[in-house]
Design brief:
The protein is an alpha+beta fold. The protein has helices at residues 2-29, 35-39, 65-73, 86-91, 178-214, 221-225, and strands at 53-61, 114-116, 127-134, 138-142, 150-160, 163-172. The radius of gyration is 23 Å and the shape is globular.
Length: 236
Amino acid sequence: MAVLRRIRPVVGAVLLGVVYWVVVRPRMLNWGATPGDVRRTLPGDELLAEPDGESTMGVRIDAPPEAIWPWLRQLGQEQGGFYSYQWAENLVGLDIHNAEEIVPEYQELSVGDTVRLARADRFPETKLEVASFTPERSLVLQSPEQPPWWVWAFVLEPVDETTTRLLVRSRISLLQNPLVELASKTVLDPITFVMTRGMLLGIKSRVEARADADSPVEPRADDREGERPGSGTEDE
């Protein structure tokens, strides 16, 4: 019995590890994405052909691509933020301020532009650059190093005239160190899931809120019922 009491915590830890590795982690990394999304090639994959880690996440947005694209164009710490959990980002001093509207002065975009992930004076190396983009279709960011160690791609795919799927793929190259790999998969992966999911939902809520505000108001049923033929103008 004493032996059983000693090994029980070990067995429990092993089982939790297996559940995380086999069930939880794959679902986190591919939240909102279909198996087809995960398998297929997306813009930016060619920049890091053999990643050590990859995630593909997605969300369905009730708006066309042209309504979503301006929010992607203004990504960045010094611009529109990342639309995720601002309080969590600023807890570590990133100084993120998420925009609640499209800001015209943040809409300029060119290949090679810097996209900061945190304030420059505290975290000078935390930045990406625009690797490529196709307006209303895709935006690919990468780390400045060549070859890059991180590629972050945003892809807009129309479902119909009023609905779009936004996919976000992250590919990273890790130091060839077992401890680094273990830390990435057990610590960074959950953080990436939480913050990326928050960003996707943040973009969705902002785009759909703006679409609702811009849509014309339909007359209520009781208003329509109150109309009488010939009552539109005095001439009639």
